[in-house]
Design goal:
CATH class of chain A: Alpha Beta
Largest sheet of chain A: 8 strands, parallel, barrel
Order of helices and strands of chain B: EEEEEHEEEEEEHEEEEHEE
Strand content of chain B: 35-45%
Oligomer: heterodimer
CATH architecture of chain A: Alpha-Beta Barrel
Number of strands of chain B: 17
Strand order of the largest sheet of chain A: 3-4-7-8-9-10-15-16
Number of helices of chain B: 3
CATH class of the largest domain in chain B: Alpha Beta
Number of helices of chain A: 10
CATH topology of chain A: TIM Barrel
Structural class of chain A: alpha/beta
Radius of gyration of chain A: 18 Å
Radius of gyration of chain B: 17 Å
Amino acid sequence: MSHLNVKAGGISLKEPGILASGILDENGYSMKRILLEGAGAAVTKSIGIDGRDGYNPPVVVETGSGILNAMGLPNPGIDNFSEEITLAMKAGKPVIGSIFASNANDFLKLAEKMSDYGVAAVELNLSCPHVKGFGTEVGSDPALVKEIVSTLKGSISIPVWAKLSPNVTDILSIANAASDSDAVVLINTVRGMAIDIYARSPILTNRYGGLSGSSIKPVGLRLVYEVRKELGLEIIGVGGISTWQDALEYIMAGSSAFQVGTALWSNGRKVFSEINQGLESYMKEFGVGNLMELRGVAIR
Amino acid sequence: MMQHVKILRKEIETPTVFSLYFHWDVKVEPGQFVMVWVPGYSEVPMSLSSTGKEKCLTVKMYGDTTKALNSLKEGDIIQLRGPYGKPFTRVKGKTLLVGGGSGMASMRPLINEESTGIVAARGQDELLFADDFSKGNAICVTEDGSRGIKGIITAGFENLDLKSFSMIYICGPERMLYAVFKMLHGKTENVEFSLERSMKCGIGLCDSCSVDGFQICKEGPTFSISEVEKMGEFGKTRLDRSGKRVFF
C-alpha cells in the first residue's frame, strides 16, 4: 500500500491510521499485534513519572452510541515502560510515546526517557478529562501549554505532538499556544457522565468521564476544520473514526493522518485493514495518487 | 449497558463461597462472564455457574466488593453487564472438567452424566461442586489431604486415559493452569483453558487483561491448548493494575 504513505507530524507512516492513546496500548504485545494488523503507528497509554493503578471499576460505560471512560491514567511509571516499547517496536513501525505531567520540567524528563527508549515521537497528553492536576487542567492554560511545548522543542530531537481537549471555550488560543509542536492531535474525549437509575448513582467510580466513539465525530471534525482553516497547523485527527469514510472526512477537514481507538470495540480488530482497503479503493476510483492531495480540500 | 436482576435466593457453598440465583432473560453460554457492579464498591468479572433460564453467580469472598455482595439478600438488585467473552466449545461424549478453588464455578454448567471432574482445593471445606458430579465421577484433590488425593491438581490426572475424553476443560489461577498445561502439552489436543487476569473494562479496550496481544475479556476467556501454547506471556509474566510487567 505504498501510496497510502503519509508524512505527518514529522514522521513517515506506511498507513495513515494510528492507534489512539489509551486503547490496547499498555502491553507491548498488544501494540505489536495491532501494528501488524494494519495500523501505521501506535501511541502508547499515557505514561507519567510515577506509577498509578487508576480508578476502581466501573471505568467504562457503554452508552449505546459510544463509550464513556474514566480509567484514571493507570500506568507503570516511565522507568517501568521501556520493555513494552521494545516489544511493540518489533512490528517495525513507529511507536509514539504518550506522556502526562503537570509541569514543563516533568514533561521534559518523560520525553527524554521516551526518546531513549526509541519512540518516533512523543504525544503530550494535555487533555485527559478526568484526573485532577493533569490533562485538561494543564492543557486549558495557554501560557503553560506554550511553556511545555517550547521547553520540549528546545531540548529533544524527536517530534513533539500536542493532544488537545475539546472541553475548552477557545480552541484557537490553546492550539496557537501549541503551534511550535510538530502536530496538534485533535480531539481527546468529550466530558460526560452516566447515571444508574436503580442505584441512583453515577456509574463511573470517578463520576465524570470522557465520551468517545461515533457520537463525537462531528465535534472532532469541527475542531480540526477550524484549527486548520484559522491557524494552518499540522493536525492529526481523532474522534469517532470507525470507517474509511470517517477517515476521509477528517483528511478533507485538514488532518495529515488520523487516530482510531473506540472503533476497536465497535468494529473489531479488522478496523485498520478495512479503513486501508476503503481508502485505496476511493483513491483508485477518483484518481488520487497520494492521500495528501485530499488534505483540507473541504475547507471553505 | 447496565442490566438489573433481582436475587431469587442465596445458597452457601463453602465457608468462603456463596451462590446468588436470579432470573435473567439473556442467552449465556458456559464459559462466558459478566461484570458485576456493587455501587459504592467496585465492579468485578464473574463467570456464571448456571446458564439455564435461572442464572447463578458463585462468588468467592476475597475483597470488599465480594463481601458486599455477600450482604445482599433475596429481592435485592444486582447490577451487571454482559454476557461477555467466548464460551467453551461444546462437544458430545466424555468430558473432563478440571477446576481449582472457585474455578469450578464456570465448569458447573458443563457437568452432565458423561463428565468426570478433578476438583481441587486447599482442604475439604473448600471443595466446590464436587457432589454435583455423578457418583464416583469426581476426583477430589486437597493440599492437606482432608479428602481424596493429597497434593496439587496435577495429581488428579494420574490413572486417567486422557485420550478417552472428547474435551478437557480447565479453569483456575494461571499458575495452576500453567502446571496443567505443561503436563498435558504434547499428549492431547482437545483441551480448553479459561484464563483469568486483572480485568477493568471487560470489553476489549483497556488492555489490562491482555496476554500476548489477545484480550482475555473479548477473544477469551476460553482458549485452546494450541492457542495457549503460542502465548509467550502465559504462565510467565503479566501486567499489574498499573500496567507494570511482573513475573508470576
